[in-house]
Amino acid sequence: MTINFSKRWIKITLHILVWVVLITLPYIINANRSRPPHHLSNYEENQFLRLNFISYFYWIAIFYLNNKVLMPSFFYRKQYFWYGLSLLGCLLLAISIHSTLFKILLPDFDFNLGRTLWFNTPTFLLTIAASTAFTMISDRIREEKRSLQREQENMKTELSFLRSQISPHFIFNVLNNIVALVRLKSNELEPTVMKLSGLMQYMLYETDEEKVSIKTETEYLRAYIDLQKQRFGKKVAIETNIDIESEFDEIEPMLLIPFIENAFKHGLGMIENPQIFIDLKTEDDRLTFMVRNKFNEDESEVKDAASGIGLANVSRRLNLLYNKEHQLEIAKKDGWFNVNLSLKLTA
Q1: Distances (CA, A) of 62 to 12, 81, 130, 213
Q2: C-alpha torsion 331→334→335→340, nearest 10
Q3: How many CB atoms lie within 10 A of CB 299?
Q4: For residues 236 and 274, is the Cβ–Cβ distance under 8 A?
Q5: Residue 315 to residue 158: CA distance in whole angstroms
């Protein structure tokens, strides 16, 4: 409400400034030519002032007629002949009104058409120029605002879609973990189910928020990693380092988990001495995140084709959310898959 009120006053102020310029500039331009003759009486001088004051209203009318009718109807449709003809009609109408008012207010003076045109034509042209510039600038601002709103709506839609892709992928992996624990008849099944319950609660109630605290997000990551450790035990070397400087920093929910999921998806299987390294650190409102895992080139290609959900979607989400406020590097080298992410956090 306050914002709309402020915008309204800014718009009103802009209109007032435009009319101050339109009203004063013609008299500055015409200077001596616009002055009444010196031999006029006080009454006659006042009548001239009344005539000039009344003329302001039909200049204002022409300004908004051009703004609301002539520009949209002819100029924007490239019907320039009809636009020019309409402007000429407006000028003739203004001169006709001026002539009528002159004869009413100053009946003892002869109406001089040449002097009237000499004085009013610059005012008319200035009014049309100001109206045209005002209309084009206003329409451009309005169109950019609509374009920005459309982009924001598209961004919200895309983010919702990308998030919906990530969540089922995560659930699918965790359910596979539980199936494995059931088959092994592991004592870790109950705590695993409890952790999964906590994760599901997080996914159901936290991920609808635009942002969550970095503490909440890292707890979610730790729980996921613990579930994976319970599943694989000593079959894979997992090294995790999470160092959070401030618990009040915020991040989009489930933004980092796909990289960790990807490491477990491609870092296991037909790989000798599988290893996964996860390092997350925040410092000075900056998050740095690194995930490294060994991988098998042939096997990873098969898994990517089967899943249909890759890191391209995560990269797209980062671009939508952070644009130039993040750097993401993904590289494969010497049998290692490396992800390095840096982004600016919000508090």
Answers
A1: 18, 18, 11, 57
A2: -30
A3: 15
A4: yes
A5: 12
Model confidence pLDDT, tens digit, residues 160-174: 655 555 556 667 767
Cα-only R_g, the chain = 36
What is the sign of the dihedral through the CA atoms of 157, 158, 161 and 167? negative
Contacts (Cβ under 8 Å, ≥6 apart) of 120: 55, 91, 94, 95, 98
Closest CA to 345 of 213, 160, 216, 241: 213
Place of tokens 């000039």: 52
54 close to 121: Cβ distance less than 8 angstroms: no
Axis-axis angle for helices 257-266, 311-322 (nearest 10): 160
- Token representation of residue 36: 């009444």
- Give the CA distances from residue 34 to residues 53, 54, 55, 63, 115, in Å, rounded to whole numbers and listed in that order: 13, 15, 13, 22, 9
- Classified as helix, coil or strand, 291 is strand
Residue-wise pLDDT for 293-339, tens only, equals 988 776 555 454 434 346 777 888 888 788 788 999 999 888 899 99
User: Can you list the residues of the chain whose pLDDT is less than 50?
Assistant: 1-2, 30-35, 302, 304-309
